[in-house]
Amino acid sequence: MSLLKTDDQIKELIQESKRIAIVGLSNKSERDSYRVAKYLLDKGFEIIPVNPTVDEVLGIKAVGSLKEIEGQVDMVDVFRKPDQVMPIVEEAIAIGAKSIWFQLGVVNESAAKLASDNGLKVVMDRCVKIEHNRLF
User: Fold this and answer.
1) What are the CoA-binding domain coordinates in residue numbering (predicted)?
2) Most CB within 10 Å of its CB: which of 31, 78, 104, 135?
């Protein structure tokens, strides 16, 4: 399994990811997922809220699942518990996403291996906001 770990690998992934689906994105401003989404939006990324329990986040219409997204997804950013990520990886593979990013605390080796084995770039147990802020 090939996880992206070096600064160069992570920087390159962030640079090539313009359209980011955020799974588990909350519409509550105190949640980490909301703060990360707002940061990415402010930095010029297109975000797609993926959460079946909300209508919109940050003024953007939410979808219930990755399969509802039209067009290419560069990165799937996952804010779910580790035991809930396997179906998300399977959907990310099915829609042809280029990468999957498991946020801080989200560690699932078998899901990461499945993603990697199917050609997705994988980052695990890191925050895209922290890494972007640090590298750029």
Assistant:
1) 13-106
2) 78
